């Protein structure tokens, strides 16, 4: 009986219908979900930065020396004219004494030269001295007067240097950085503190290159943790990009933010108007955008086929992505599953 099973199976298999050579086995087009290109009301985007004073003044001594007293700390509020640091005044006091001695010597020489000139003038009238001798005395007297002027100017500089040994606040404000320490030897012009002047406050943000060309003049500013916002106006934009970050620093004046705390986190909300001539700004589902190393693209539905269309991604939002496209409003595109499609592929749109 076992020997009859194998021939029977072969016989049954031969009776099954076989596909002819002219019949091609085809796979059904995949189902896709569709959406349409709809224009956005405007491009909304944000930049986060920090609050700064309109004027942040680096503070430094006008002369070099050793710090003997530090009267302030970072975060303190100071009034205009308040003493912040003091240098050892010994050297500048000695310079002042030396300058005073130089002035006294120059004044004595001037008086002596003037008396000699007057004496020779009298002798010249009585023909007891030659014109050459008188001219020589007059030149000496003039040179002595000029040396006295120079010595007096040096004395004034020495007296000023004594005053420069005390570093005073140039205006009222808050010290946002203090680095000088007692015993530290500093050079003239070496920064040891930064003073944020009272008054206007600004939001400082870094602008990426793709936002630079159409950077709005106005924005809505909102401090971290504060629900109420206020207007901000562009005051200054850097002329060149930062070498490390490749961004442009922008300073926005906070119209009603004079009370904003220095250093606080602030977010600027921008709304860029649409430019129909330059293309369309639209919001589409995140799954509608494909990136395969050749730039972002979406698949336009053309009948029962898909066509790849290049787009530029502007930013992400809660429910999708904002793109810039040349497609007309209402154009159908694939909303999901674009990673499984190829340009020209046939599809079936799920109703």
Automatic annotation (TrEMBL):
UniProt feature coiled coil, ranges: 96-161
Domain Multidrug resistance protein MdtA-like barrel-sandwich hybrid, first and last residues per copy: 62-194
Domain Multidrug resistance protein MdtA-like alpha-helical hairpin: 98-162
Molecular function via GO: efflux transmembrane transporter activity
Family matches, as Gene3D superfamilies: 2.40.30.170, 2.40.420.20, 2.40.50.100, Helix hairpin bin
Record keyword Coiled coil present: yes
Keyword tRNA-binding attributed: no
Matching InterPro entries: MdtA-like_BSH, MdtA-like_HH, RND_pump_MFP
Any one GO cellular component localisation term in the record: efflux pump complex
Domain of life: Bacteria
Keywords tagged on the record: Coiled coil
Classification via Pfam families: BSH_RND, HH_MFP_RND
UniProt cross-references to NCBIfam families, sorted A to Z: RND_mfp (TIGR01730)
Membership in a protein family: Belongs to the membrane fusion protein (MFP) (TC 8.A.1) family.
Name this protein carries in UniProt: RND transporter
